[in-house]
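Methods: example folding runs. The two proteins below were folded one after another, and each record is reproduced exactly as written to the output file, sequence line first and structure-token line second.
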Amino acid sequence: MKLTSISKCLVGLALIVTAHLETQAQNLLDMTGWTVGSGTSGIFNIAGSSTESVREWGTGPDGKNVVVWKAIPSGNSSNDGGWNTQTFPVIHTNKYRYTIWLKKSNSANGSSYFGCGTISTLAGVTSSNPYFWAGDLPLLNKWYLLVAYIHGSNDTSTVHEGGIYDGATGSKVRSIADFKFLPTAVSNYHRTFLNNDTALNDRQFFYSPRVDVVNGNEPTLAALLGLQPGYDNQAYFSGKVGIKTTVPGDYDLAVKGKVRAQEVKVEMANWPDFVFAKDYALPMLQETEKHIKEKGHLPGISSAAEVEKNGIELGDINKKLLQKIEELTLYIIQLNKRVTELEGIKSSN
């Protein structure tokens, strides 16, 4: 990642990154389409017209500047903004958790909906148009986290665990319906939208949609709500993140400033121990010398101009530097053998 500047203290950044990694774990929704714009994007197929669904920078549940989805009703008494995602694969015997942050402003006209694809009630009745919940949020101008569950097809539980949670206190203020998968289910989808809102000044805000397998590795509700003990600066980022920049570009995390940390781990493949393989073609020193004279830098290593323009990727440059070190080691071994041979010849004379 190219870093032009980052001015963030170690503790603050560590808290943000830790919370981000925890809440990002295994979200089954591809959030690359969650970017500024309007209409359908990525896996998010709009409910209503393209003018009724706008993604823009706004204030999220934790008070931070994030990309939110805004529904703008046109007054046509139908879908007024929101989405039906593309389908994603599921294992029907597993349990899944669906979540979405919602906030409504101006009036309680129309209804908010939160649902999924064809499913069964806990009592075993198939529903082709299921909703975990539909209605009005408890209060206007306030963020709420909606949490719903789809149980495994062989789950006999009849207990509804879903609910609407107050974004400020973390309290469960309403219960909502659970469902379970049909034995034939291989996929499902996430959907939420504003419907039948004839008040043109109303706005429905959506943030951080996600689907998690309930297996012990999913983020806790406390983490999603920003109430995880030990964190003073909880954060949840559903898409690309910019710190001191609003243009993260192609990077999931872009920071304009300096980064300080006690440890950075980069996962890499094809580590260059292949240099020590018997069939490795060690470059001739004459070729390396020629390249240096012509290009002004080592073969396989970016030039100073390229680094200044594009920056460096830490994992990639460390891999290349290790390859050069291993090649140098082989050269030294060759030279040592040659010196030993010459010394032996000299001593025999």
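Second run, written to the same file directly after the first:
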Amino acid sequence: MAYLIDRRIAGRHKSAVNRERFMRRFRGQIKEAVDRAIKRRSIKQIDSGEKVSIPARDISEPVFRQGHGGVWESVHPGNEEYRRGDRIPRPRSGAGGSGGGASNDGEGEDDFVFELSREEFLDYFFEDLALPNLVKTQLANTQDYKTTRAGYSVEGTPTNIHVVRSLRGAIGRRIALGSPLVAELRQLLEEKERLESEPVPDMLRIRELEEQIHALRSRIYRIPYLDPFDLRYRNRVRMPQPSARAVMFCLMDVSGSMDEAKKDIAKRFFTLLYLFLTRNYDTVEAVFIRHHTQAEEVDEETFFKSRETGGTVVSTALKLMQEIIARRYPVAEWNLYAAQASDGDNWHDDSPQCRHLLANEIVPLMQYYAYVEIAEAEPQNLWQEYERVAEQHKHRFAMQRIRGVEEIYPVFRELFKKTNAFAY
């Protein structure tokens, strides 16, 4: 009988089926299924699971069987072609036998279908994307705790007893209590031996020594081997864990030139960014700033549904974001991200001021600033000014143009693709 032992590494907390190993083996096919799902899904459905179909021929496993040794005979009923001693030729490739392929009657082996969970789907979805400068942590107002070892205590549960530490203390206690008695016992034994070796032993003194020796030995034997005082227990305390926090500023032009279609594209882009941030940070807050000639902080529903008329002054939104950062989000404790969506229309004299605010005051505080221009026309003066900011802050500022819904995800991947400049 042959025994096969599988020594391949299995992930922790995995079942016997080892789902993680299976997904590593068919990683390429799963990635293709995720890419196909991205193309046909809306943003609202982007974070759900996905069914993946693996062709049956790809999941076949090698089979080991015991072979027939030596010479053996078999009887084939209905044989009219071969006689005893004839050699039967090997069947041609694909001829005869049974298999899992499709037959003439249309029957065949079904593909293997399994479903990716939401977390697994997002792992593949954001596999080759990264966030820059994911380094800031803070301890204020943290809700995450980790149990860590903090020495030993004299009280605890029996399951937490530290045997080695307890025995070490017991040995030290026995040495401390028994050493004077052992030294005194040694002296009495030497004196008794000396008296017994004399020509005329002093029997009265010898009997006294024997009584003292017996009393000392009894005292030594009464020293407990392990006393409750010796017991030591592992001590564990809950320590606050640093948790990375991020805030995402969403800036959007809501002037008359931003119609519902453009705002829908902006919403989908912001949704992708928020979903991506929640994969990298423990705490993510979103701040929504809308602007036309004036800027204001609003809730999400007002941000996407309300529409204004009039012109556009982008610098008002940048100034408001700067005020909110100074008031609520200290740079030392928060990772700051910003995504700005606009159709590129801006008051001509305001664009240079926007460039100055971004290049000198806002982008240096940011982990990353992404500008998305939703327009089919040629770039206007705001885009030209932002290009200068991109040249000055290559690793913190990025800009792309979106002309339709189908370009949202490609633009998002271009903005957050992994580069060597991203530091962790």
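Comment on the second run: The first strand starts at residue 50 and ends at 54.
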